[in-house]
Amino acid sequence: MRTFHLLTDAFTDVEHSIDQKTYTELTHLTMPYVQTINGTTRYYALCPKCHNPIQLIGVFRKRKVGAHGKHTGQDVSGIGTFDKREYDFCPYAIHAGYTWLGYKDDTEITGLEKDIVKKTELYFDRGLYFLERSIGVRFPSDVKRYMVLSYFANEGYRYRIATRDNFPMPVLEIAFRQPLTRMPVEKDSWIVQALKKHGFSFVPCQKINGCVFIQGDPVQIWFRQFERYTDDDGYSESMVCVIDHFDPYGGVDDCVDWEITHKITFDFDFLNRLTAMTNWKRDEDLMRLVDKYVSQLPWVNH
Ligand SMILES: [Zn+2]
Fold first, then answer.
1. How far, in Å, from the CA of 82 to the mean position of ligand 1?
2. pLDDT, tens digit, for every residue of 235-259?
3. What digits encode the pLDDT tens for the residues 272-285?
4. What is the gyration radius of the CA atoms in the chain, in angstroms?
5. Ligand 1 centre from 92 Cα, in Å?
6. E-assigned strands of the chain?
7. Ligand 1 centroid – CA 119 distance (Å)
8. Is the pTM of this model over 0.85?
């Protein structure tokens, strides 16, 4: 990784660049960040994603690969204990693309999960807006409410794919397989282009400029194959979006006569820009619903 957190950064989006100047200014090169062990000076901080201790390499001595951070894999006095479980789910601990779906099997709630819940409490409506813009659809309000309900009923904040940055992503895994015919779709989107080839037609959406409704056989939209790819610049995430014939009984494997697939890469900068926007119109009703579910969590103190 190329960024770090201080001990005081537990709940923040800010990630500090791993370089000599930044590290010196922020830590003043004091304990516990800088420690001398067996005569060797070591530079520590926290991983910005999983908050496990990391050691900084090449900050004060040039290395070929440049200054970077590495999970220590063990407790560091004054910095923190090593949490193997958080490490296993840390995007910076993964070095290749992979597919990874499912639910964490431990029962104890972790700090990471609490942070994610805190974020959903602040930004759930923006998270859905982010998904809508990424996919090219607008969710009707009953679908949004269903997404909130499913997210909390299924503990979306505990999904393997969930990180501090991507809190809306589990919604795609949990609450999708939605009838697309009911949703306004951006008329310039890949969805419209792909469905045209299958003979579908469209009518303009009167309420939302630039959006259309799909005419014809009912179709549904859902997601599979979550992928996360990490490199030195950070990470990106994608999912394969599937459009196929809508089956009201939820059958997946039988009678698949056609399907359209499209890989969507999610631009999390967009999500960050969105959460920074102060003039964005909140979905107050939805956030009240989120508040209700959060307040019902037994480990949340209000
Ligand atoms: Zn980490």
1. 10
2. 788 888 989 877 655 444 444 567 8
3. 888 888 888 899 99
4. 22
5. 5
6. 3-4, 16-17, 34-37, 40-46, 53-57, 68-71, 98-99, 178-179, 185-186, 201-204, 211-215, 219-231, 234-245, 259-266
7. 19
8. no
